[in-house]
Amino acid sequence: MSTDQSSEQAKWSGKYGSLAIAFCNLITCITSWGENWILTVLLGMGVLVCGTMGIFDLKQHIKG
């Protein structure tokens, strides 16, 4: 049972992990908007990079 659950978690992490990180970066970027511009810029870049990686990962998983 433990190995089945960990393999499901690994599959989910492989497919949606970078999109989840991009979403968390986006939420943190929105909440820190205007307070700390260096953090806002870094998180915005993280949204772009992780979001792009996530989209291409999903395309790859869909194609097979």
Number of helices: 2
Measured on Cα atoms, how large is the radius of gyration?
Answer: 15 Å
User: Helical amount among residues, as a percent range?
Assistant: over 70%
Identify low-pLDDT runs. Answer: none
- How many beta-strand elements? 0
Structural class: mainly alpha
How far apart the termini lie comes to: 27 Å
Q: How much strand?
A: under 5%
Number of domains: 1
Overall mean confidence score, pLDDT: 87
What does the overall shape look like? elongated
Offer a few descriptive terms.
single chain, 64 residues, mainly alpha, 0% strand
Please render the helix and strand layout as text.
Elements: H1 2-31, H2 37-63
Explain this structure.
The protein is mainly α. The protein has one domain. Helix content is 89%, strand content 0%. It contains two helices and no strands. The protein has helices at 2-31, 37-63. Helix 1 runs antiparallel to helix 2 (37-63). The chain is elongated. The mean pLDDT is 87.
Summarize this, please?
The chain has two helices and no strands.
